[in-house]
Design a protein that fits this description.
about 375 residues, alpha+beta, nine-stranded antiparallel beta sheet
């Protein structure tokens, strides 16, 4: 999605990825197979680059620091990435900067957790390596403590959540910021990832304003150029708490491709090139529904495409991944409408008919490859 936008500017995008069948390989000007967590591989890859960016946090920070020393423009700042890669360090950062977040305890390993059990319910999060719901374990009772992973973690204490929100913030070299309208996220309990979101969030104007201010406070605390996706909890007593921050384009901003004049991917390119911040105002009510694999592994097929595209204001994005599996994001559908009631109808149709399944399970007479 970033490359599709970058092509409008005739920007030359090179991609490093360990998977030779990754979707970007087919459309990037240059694709290199390799691990973005390996310092030497990353340094060799970026040698001829002007700008270095990331699509996922699990990148060698040491390599990015060296790239900056070589005179490359690196976004996000390696220091920001180093903090965000470690959920424990991220929580301590919020605490240090006076940014409200859910109460937490750091644990060194499983033995530490069992020796001093936290008040339950709670969530146990791996300090490093988690992604798309992985590395998170709900602790509902003592039996869950026995299943805890062994390693450094963050125990996030229970808060009574009314809604989960997210705000995208763009921060340029001069410290100017722009935030998008808060989005409301609804999670799929099977995989602990976003099922769908809607924008603007169904909150009052004062809460929406406070959410944007808090997200901008987070970006200001990091004090570096970048795109920040700030995930928030809105508690039942009206408090806003920062959950996590991603310093990159994010699932919570995919709707901006159609819903805003300047999408999150356009803003990121503008930051890379030193261009002014774009217009992030919503042009309509919008929803984004994730298309997630189900039914096991195999060649992906999307059932229900004709039903989805029949919905007015529906835009289908299929990512071109070669294999589907349970819980894997295979694409998304953006819906634009005049109000939330019309969004409800589009979400219901997409949820009812849209299925990404292995080809062997396909029930569509004329399959559409995902």
């Amino acid at each position: 999605m970033f490359i599709e936008n970058a092509l409008r500017y005739d920007a030359r995008v090179h991609v490093l990825d360990p998977d030779p069948d990754c979707p970007c390989a087919a459309i990037a000007e240059r694709y290199v197979r390799g691990s973005f967590a390996d310092r030497d591989t990353v340094l060799d890859f970026v040698r001829e680059a002007d700008v270095v960016g990331i699509e996922i946090e699990h990148v060698s920070v040491e390599a990015l620091e060296q790239a900056r020393a070589m005179g490359k423009r690196v976004i996000p700042d390696p220091a920001v990435l180093r903090t965000i890669q470690d959920k424990g360090a991220q929580k301590l950062f919020y605490q240090e900067k006076g940014i409200p977040t859910a109460p937490f305890t750091l644990v060194e390993d499983r033995a530490t957790l069992l020796a001093s059990p936290p008040p339950l319910p709670a969530f146990l999060k791996a300090r490093t390596g988690g992604y798309d719901g992985r590395g998170v374990l709900p602790l509902r009772g003592s039996q869950d403590l026995e299943r805890a992973f062994d390693g450094p973690g963050v125990v996030e204490h229970h808060v009574d959540i009314a809604l989960e929100l997210a705000v995208l913030v763009v921060r340029d070299d001069a410290g100017n910021t722009m935030s998008y309208d808060p989005v409301e996220m609804v999670f799929d309990p099977r995989y602990n990832l976003v099922d769908h979101l809607r924008a603007p969030a169904r909150v009052d104007a004062a809460t929406a304003r406070q959410a944007r201010q808090l997200a901008e406070q987070v970006a200001g605390a990091f004090a570096a150029t970048g795109l920040y996706a700030v995930e928030l909890f809105l508690t039942r007593d009206g408090q806003l708490l920062v959950n996590e921050t991603a310093p990159r384009a994010h699932n919570s901003g995919h709707h901006t491709i159609e819903a805003c004049a300047s999408s999150q991917f356009d803003q990121l390119l503008r930051l890379y090139l030193g261009l002014p911040i774009g217009d992030g105002r919503l042009r309509a009510h919008a929803a984004m529904v994730n298309l997630v694999g189900e039914g096991g592994r195999g060649e992906p097929v999307l059932n229900g495409l004709s039903d989805i595209v029949h919905v007015p204001g529906a835009f289908v994005h299929l990512y071109g991944k070669r294999e589907t599996r349970d819980g894997r994001k295979m694409g998304h559908v953006t819906l634009l409408a005049g109000d939330h009631l019309a969004l409800d109808q589009g979400i219901a149709v997409t949820r009812l008919h849209g299925r990404v399944v292995p080809a062997a399970m396909n029930s569509t007479p004329t399959p559409t490859q995902a």
